[in-house]
């Protein structure tokens, strides 16, 4: 089953290469905080639709049978009234079973409807492409197809969608065994992570930091890596806080000493990957 995203041009394979001299920039899709969701679909926090979506998110987080049922009812009501933001969040929940029963096939149908109806709302359209990328990457509601997932993520990344930038970075960095380019291209991974970090994505900050601290970039900047972790930790990313604590406690001053830090940093890369994925 191919999505409308692919039928309307996503099948055009676009894989930009970094310009010389520039740093470039799975697991199921992580659920971003509510403000990121609202910003991603072009809503301000004060509007009635935004308030309804926030209420549904709070109910989902309570994770009781009653709250899940009420959240589903609210999202379905938004969908029936033609609010594409509600439709998109409903599809997101159905795709991976976040708070409600998973129904990937129906989720894909809803995403395709949003793609058809949101041509004049680029941010909503980009979020829909990002979700379709998740579906193709994991084979949820569609046949697993990494090329189509990359196409969808590429379209979403043009509007700064955090999840798309993060997963494009993971692809080129070869961080996951089931989502990896044929060969590692850390400069391209850094290109996407950098865009995500600039947009406020703390997951991208963590991954970009580890490329610097692991010496995978030319040139790498260990101080920049530590500062990225510090920023992500300050914004509430628990994985970043764990990574930062590890580097401070174990690597310590060697992180600033290129002549002694390399062996410790190679070891720390292995350890910190496992720490990050535990969060």
Structural summary, described in words:
By secondary structure, this protein is mostly helical. It is 66% helix and 0% strand. The protein contains 14 helices and no strands. Helix 12 crosses helix 13 (238-251) and helix 13 (238-251) packs antiparallel against helix 14 (258-277). The protein starts with a helix and ends with a helix. The relative contact order is 0.10.
Kindly summarize this structure in a few lines.
The chain has about 280 residues and is mainly alpha-helical. It has helices spanning about 5-10, 35-40, 50-60, 65-80, 85-95, 105-115, 120-140, 145-155, 160-175, 185-200, 200-215, 220-235, 240-250, 260-275. It contains 14 helices and no strands.
Offer a few descriptive terms.
mainly alpha; disordered C terminus
Largest sheet: none
> What is the CA–CA distance across the termini?
33 Å
Give the SSE string. HHHHHHHHHHHHHH
Low-confidence runs (pLDDT<50, min 5 residues)? 1-35, 255-279
Number of strands: 0
What percent strand?
Answer: under 5%
Secondary-structure-based class equals mainly alpha
Determine the mean pLDDT.
77
Please, how many helices? Answer: 14
Per the principal axes of the C-alpha atoms, what is the gross shape?
A: globular
Percent of residues in helices: 55-70%
- Report Rg: 19 Å
